[in-house]
Amino acid sequence: MQDNMRKDWDTYFMDIAYMVSTRSRCPRRHVGTVLVQGKKLLGTAYNGAPMGVSDCSEDGCMIVEEYELQTDGEQEQMIKKQRCIRTIHAEQNLLLFTDRIDREGSTVYVTDQPCWTCANMLANSGVVEIVYHRAYSKDSDKVIALMELKGIIFRNLASYEPPAQAGMDIIS
């Protein structure tokens, strides 16, 4: 008999990722991630400035604009992207503070779909699965294609509800 009061593993680990995200001081987006092997939690990380460096809440965001040519069939258009270069992404911090041997065959739970740079890093990290909640449309098509190419399971928990204590409005 299954206990209906008990959370499933995806919900459990995503809840932890969201609670980890509450450590972020980024005013634009709080992102948290956890590394799991089997059902064992091996590491957590969140986005923010490097240790010992003023963060965005203290010195403001360091926003840069980039342009990317996107092709949709026969139509091309330039897409403007903005990103903060002060912040180390949660996935990058997770990779910096965990061992490769622990990542081999593991799953990463992350509150937000990884950006292109983080997806590249995760694709080369030894993980076999990435589970995320919130979409990140700026890089989505490229990231999905990369995960398919690498054979990494890439799942969106679209119906997941984050814990109320981890709520944050996202600034695009």
Automatic annotation (TrEMBL):
GO terms for cellular component: cytoplasm. Zn(2+) binds at H89, C115, C118. Gene3D superfamilies: Cytidine Deaminase, domain 2. InterPro entries: APOBEC/CMP_deaminase_Zn-bd, CMP_dCMP_dom, Cytidine_deaminase-like, dCMP_deaminase, dCMP_deaminase-rel, Deoxycytidylate_deaminase_dom. GO terms for molecular function: dCMP deaminase activity; zinc ion binding. The active site is at E91 (proton donor). Keywords: Hydrolase, Metal-binding, Zinc. The keyword Ubl conjugation does not apply. This is dCMP deaminase family protein. It comes from Paenibacillus albus.
